[in-house]
Design a protein that fits this description.
The complex is a heterodimer of chains A (about 240) and B (about 350). Chain A is about 45% helix and about 10% strand. By secondary structure, chain A is mainly α. Chain A has 2 domains: about 110 residues, GMP Synthetase, Chain A, domain 3 (2-Layer Sandwich); about 100 residues, no CATH class. Chain B has a single domain, classed as Alpha-Beta Barrel (TIM Barrel), CATH 3.20.20.140. Chain B starts with a strand and ends in a 7-residue tail after the last helix. Classes of the chains: A mainly alpha (about 240), B alpha/beta (about 350). At the A-B interface, helix 6 and helix 8 of A face helix 1, helix 8 and helix 10 of B.
């Protein structure tokens, strides 16, 4: 891999926490220029008013992964066209951290926010796996989904995504573990499975819907972003019944 | 009124605005960013034939509003839900005087709701009393993400907000529309977060809390709260236009809302002028949840009638011709459980 590809691959590990997709696939990377050992990246978002805390989080994660590459010397990450571009770019240049960047406005750290969305991402990934099983066997008793183990899932992208989300939460990925667990790894009583799955479904629909909206808005705002976006990894139609 | 296949629908547009986003009203770059953001929503989700020019979009005026809603748009009744944005616009974004004059001239078609900001303290309470008298307020629209000096937002369960809700009770302002959706977001406080709704809805059971944009993109959290609180309602502004660009996704939103909160607590809105109502009404009457989405039952004509107008008409005591009225349905199976007990014991089902 040349340096450009290495840097781009590194940026591909940065996810939008709310949409649970890499910033490269969302089209958020506007430009990436390598000059010798120096890297300059410009990021763009669907609106000027996308949440500044999320914006900062993605931009600072982008800087971190680039600094970690063993050949990078001077790394510049800038967020373009955002209502807080000046504040965020100044903070990033100075490595000021979230609180240092936003000063008194930043009452909380970003850790809690990250954890909340990691949990949601796991919930949605779990629902996708279980709904796939239901699609394959519509007669299946929903309550029985609470007993499905990881080894019973097909070897596909949906399962791989669930395993990644579990690892991100520190949950075991051993084959005999239950698929349907909460963020602490606890399973559900048979009577609770149906309602818990319904809730998980609403989480998945929420995340999918955000992704549609944000992707569409980015293309409206930056028409050239069309080719930079890769299709959402689970198309909505994949979770519908096929006749 | 909209009629198709011998069925007539009484239509209430529960979220409209008359704004001025022109450069001469913009206080700073954020004024431009805000209207540009709206215009992108409009361009992105409208059918091509319904897209306005940018110039028209900046300011469209009273005459065009009346035409788009009541002559072209099938609307029987509409409710102004204004937002001030005084930090972005010299004379505010929504035009109070123009909107109120229009509502005064057309009392059979329009209601003007106003707003308050609990960060204005005692002076704001006096203002709310004066506004309630002048505008004869039945409802308010709250935009908790609004900037205010150094502050970039407030919450409905802030102590000062409670003072305001007490005054709302005293003045008969029953309908609290809360913006929980896209656009401005304060820094730490996630303005999509609907947890504060849970608290106020429990503590002010005689007020209705209409969550605009039905909490998207926190649909999951919203449904969970709304299912437990019978005075929480879903406003469909912003969700509606997905019916065109993402019909399956729209079907899932409606499917979830009907499942969790039921047909009596969902209100149609175009969010005019972000979108125009005509195509939304036509599309919704024609809409059906695709059979391939096996998780949801088909939506019925009665459910559509309630969502398109009867629910909001009931909330605002808007007269509906007797032949178009419908009785309320039973609560959905999941709630409200009358059963905070069940809800609490089920809280461990929360995914996040």
């Amino acid at each position: 891999m040349n340096r450009h590809d290495q840097a781009y691959a590194a940026l591909g590990t940065v996810v939008d926490p709310e949409l649970d997709e890499p910033i490269t696939e969302l089209g958020f990377v506007r430009s990436l220029v390598i000059t010798g050992d120096d890297v300059e990246v410009h990021l763009r978002l669907p609106t000027s008013f996308c949440a500044p805390n999320f914006a900062y989080l993605m931009a600072s994660d982008a800087k971190d992964v680039l600094v970690k590459l063993d050949w990078t010397e001077h790394v510049v990450v800038e967020l373009d066209d955002h209502h807080d571009s000046d504040v965020i770019n100044t903070g990033l240049a100075a490595d000021a951290g979230y609180r240092g960047t936003f000063g008194q406005e930043a009452e909380d750290s970003l850790d809690e926010l990250r954890v909340t969305f990691r949990r949601k991402a796991h919930t949605a990934a779990m629902e996708r796996c279980l709904t796939e099983l239901l699609r394959v066997d519509p007669q299946r008793d929903v309550a029985s989904l609470g007993r499905v183990q990881l080894r019973e899932l097909p070897d596909n992208q949906t399962t791989a995504a669930l395993l990644r989300r579990r690892a991100a939460l520190g949950l075991s990925v051993a084959p005999t573990e239950l698929v349907m667990v909460d963020h602490e790894g606890h399973g559900y009583a048979s009577d609770d499975v149906s309602l818990a799955l319904r809730r998980a479904r609403s989480t998945r629909i929420s995340i999918d819907g955000n992704a549609h909206f944000c992707r569409g808005l980015l293309r409206t705002r930056y028409p050239e972003a069309d080719h930079a976006q890769t299709p959402a990894f689970v198309p909505l139609s994949a979770l519908t019944v096929t006749h | 009124m909209y009629s198709k296949d011998d069925v007539s629908y009484f239509i209430v547009d529960a979220h409209i605005a008359l704004w001025d986003g022109r450069p001469e009203n913009q206080r700073n770059i954020h004024g431009k960013q805000f209207i540009d953001c709206f215009y992108d929503y409009h361009r992105n989700l409208s059918p091509e034939s319904e897209v306005w020019s940018y110039e028209e979009y900046l300011y469209y005026g009273a005459e065009r509003l009346m035409n788009d809603l009541f002559r072209d748009g099938y609307i029987d009744y509409a409710i102004f839900q204004p937002v001030n944005l005084g930090e972005f616009y010299h004379r505010g974004f929504s035009q109070t005087e123009e909107s109120f004059a229009l509502a005064t001239a057309n009392p059979d078609k329009l209601t003007y709701n106003h707003y308050f900001d609990s960060r204005n303290g005692e002076a704001g309470l006096d203002q709310l009393r004066a506004d309630a008298e002048r505008f004869n307020l039945r409802g308010v629209k709250l935009y908790t993400a609004e900037w205010h000096g150094d502050s970039r937002g407030w919450k409905l369960d802030d102590p000062w907000a409670y003072r305001y809700f007490e005054v709302c009770q005293e003045l008969g302002i029953r309908n609290i529309h809360v913006h929980k959706g896209p656009t401005i977001r304060p820094l730490d406080r996630d303005s999509f977060d609907v947890a504060d709704i849970d608290h106020v809805a429990t503590d002010f059971t005689d007020l209705n809390f209409i969550v605009e944009h039905c909490g998207l993109p926190r649909l999951d959290d919203f449904c969970w709260i709304a299912t437990q609180e019978p005075n929480v309602h879903a406003g469909l502004a912003v969700a509606m236009p997905f019916i065109h660009t993402r019909p399956k996704y729209f079907a899932q939103i409606i499917g979830e809302l009907l499942y969790w909160i039921g047909e009596d607590r969902i209100q149609f809105a175009s969010d005019y002028a972000i979108w125009t109502p005509r195509w939304l009404v036509e599309a919704f009457v024609d809409f059906q949840i695709p059979e391939e989405l096996g998780d949801y039952p088909a939506i019925t004509t009665e459910q559509k009638k309630k969502i398109l107008g009867l629910n909001a008409a009931k909330m605002y005591d808007i007269p509906v011709p007797p032949e178009l009225q419908l009785p309320a349905a039973a609560e959905p199976a999941v709630g409200p459980r009358g059963a905070d007990k069940t809800a609490e014991s089920a809280d461990h089902l929360v995914g996040a």
